[in-house]
Design goal:
The protein is built from 19 helices and 18 strands. The protein has 473 residues and is of the alpha/beta class. The structure holds cobalamin and iron/sulfur cluster.
Length: 473
């Protein structure tokens, strides 16, 4: 464990590093770092963000210019979550840590959603000094205070560190009871990301109480929802609008965990007469006409339903909290009210069979004006019901085996390749599906469109690109 000397009590410069360069479906604005930046500034630290997309200078130059006392790195993605063509981002992270290590002795602190899924394993793979798993604001402030004053860090909730014995300690996360913080939106970053087609994220709540078998979100944000007030959300949206943003993405795991929160948020937005549209993740259950109408009046332009499957058997074994009938009702309501929507589907998870796949495909055709984003296989993450069901430890495997080599569950009787062939077959006659990562030509065209200033929901890209790709009959 590194101890910073007591004479260093005045240390207060923190460089925040965003290494995420992945640009599918578009480069994602680093909202997590904006929250960390805000917490540090409020506590009196001087900060600078080095962003792999927005900064022209290298991270080494940023270090030499800023002379940080601490460096915080954010790891959002571990890999692309594509079963047939996986790409791991861990080597990039390891390289970035080594480059930093070569030019500075400042303690390296790693956090982010990707880190929070495999905290001990990523800590062991990289040369960082500390890790912070889960919600980062309070643990990071506590860690920096401890380092500046030379007090113990191992018991700070969420902190991962090396003990004098050489073993790795990871204190359990403790989430703050409320969620009322606001991010610091840096105009330079917002503009750089908007120019590349990114939609700024806005978080209206943290946590998800639902229990889908594969899901990491409760691990990252906690199992209990904590809500910001309508006024706080409006204030942030007004700030974004003042920066010229026309469209936002509500990044909550599920926006409608509680109907009263949706109502409060939408009513506050309507009262504020905001000129800004947004999209969000919704669970199909409990979506009524009144609720959807209210959301539309508040600027809802697109819904991403985390449906996963249209077979009730599969929905039950994935741990979903709704039935296909509710999916149908929500889809029909959205279509009737003229709200665009897409369904995210996962083929091949527990209890999926050829029959349930065909049931999902047949039912998809019946949903009016729908778009579908399909993935094959279920990425296996520690601390999920899927992990407990498979119990890899009993077969001599560790979480580390599942980190660098992305592993996916595909139900017995199915194969990833077989599912891929079936879904590619479908693409010949259906232009409203994207299966896995879009093909290279598709991505290149998307990049060109973004450079021309076209942005908005993913579905609108799909629409436009399919039309461009389809020769006139
Ligand atoms: C919204 C979302 C999206 C939206 C983003 C929309 C937008 N405009 O922002 C869309 C749909 C586009 C998307 C796409 C993808 N996503 Co996504 N997404 C999310 C989601 C639900 C929320 C992310 C978010 O903004 N959270 C809010 C911010 C405030 O939280 P945060 O970033 O976690 O930051 C906090 C902590 O992590 C920590 N922290 C962060 N940085 C740092 C740094 C330091 C130093 C410290 C101490 C702490 C710290 O403190 C922050 C504040 O408390 C997460 C799941 C989740 N619930 O976290 C998945 C998630 C981040 N996505 C994931 C993935 C994989 C992807 C894709 C690769 C999927 C794909 N195949 O297309 C792409 C990649 C996009 C890209 N270019 O990078 C994974 C990443 C982990 C992994 N498995 O690799 C997650 C965790 C979901 C999962 N499957 O487990 N995503
Ligand atoms: S998939 Fe969505 S609804 Fe299910 S546990 Fe995860 S965040 Fe919650």
């Amino acid at each position: 464990m590194i101890h910073v000397s007591k004479s260093a009590v005045s240390l207060s410069r923190v460089l925040l590093v965003n290494i995420n360069r992945y640009d599918q479906p578009y480069p994602v604005y680093p909202l997590g770092l904006a929250y960390i930046d805000s917490a540090l500034r409020t506590a009196g630290y001087t900060t600078r963000v080095w962003d792999s997309l927005a900064d022209k200078v290298s991270v080494e130059v940023a270090v030499s210019e800023f002379q940080p006392d601490f460096i915080g790195l954010s790891l959002r993605n571990i890999d692309t979550v594509q079963c047939l063509n996986p790409h791991s981002f861990v080597p990039e992270l390891v390289e970035c840590c080594e480059r930093l290590r070569a030019v500075t002795a400042a303690p390296l602190i790693l956090g982010g959603s990707g880190f929070s899924i495999f905290p001990k394993e990523l800590f062991a793979l990289t040369s960082v000094d500390y890790g912070v798993a889960g919600e980062g604001e309070q643990p990071l402030l506590a860690l920096l205070t401890a380092l500046r004053t030379g007090s113990a860090v191992a018991d700070i909730p969420g902190v991962v560190c090396k003990m004098a014995t050489g073993s790795v300690s990871a204190a359990a996360c403790r989430l703050s009871g409320v969620f009322n913080g606001a991010p610091f939106h840096d105009s330079r970053l917002l503009q750089a990301y908007a120019k590349n087609g990114s939609l700024p994220g806005v978080q209206t709540q943290r946590g998800c109480p639902l229990k889908c078998c594969y899901c990491t979100y409760p691990v990252i944000e906690g199992k209990r929802s904590r809500f910001r007030s309508g006024e706080e959300i409006v204030e942030e949206l007004q700030q974004l609008a003042a920066h010229g943003m026309k469209y936002a993405f509500f990044v909550d795991s599920v926006f409608n965990t509680r109907t009263s929160h949706v109502v409060e948020t939408c009513e506050a937005i309507i009262r504020a007469k905001l000129d800004l549209q947004w999209e969000c993740f919704l669970r199909p259950g409990g979506v009524t006409r009144e609720l959807l109408q209210l959301m539309k009046r508040a600027g809802l332009r697109h819904i991403e339903f985390g449906s996963d499957s249209f077979s009730d058997t599969t929905l039950a074994s994935y741990g979903k909290s709704f039935s296909f009938e509710e999916v149908r009702e929500a889809s029909e309501l959205a279509a009737t009210l003229g709200v665009q929507y897409s369904h995210f589907l996962i083929f091949g998870g527990p209890s999926e069979t050829v029959e349930t796949v065909e049931e999902t495909l047949a039912r998809a055709v019946t949903l009016p004006a729908a778009f579908f984003f399909a993935t094959i296989g279920m990425r296996i993450y520690p601390d999920t019901d899927l992990w407990r069901m498979l119990a890899p430890e009993q077969h001599g495997e560790t979480a580390a085996d599942y980190l660098v080599d992305p592993r996916f569950y595909v139900a017995p009787g199915l194969t990833a390749h077989g599912l891929h062939i079936r879904l590619r077959e479908l693409l010949k006659s259906a232009s409203n599906w994207i299966v896995g990562d879009p093909p290279a030509a598709f991505s290149e065209t998307m990049t060109k469109l973004r450079k021309r200033g076209i942005s908005g929901p993913m579905r609108e890209y799909v629409d436009l690109l399919q039309r461009l790709a389809t020769p006139p009959r």
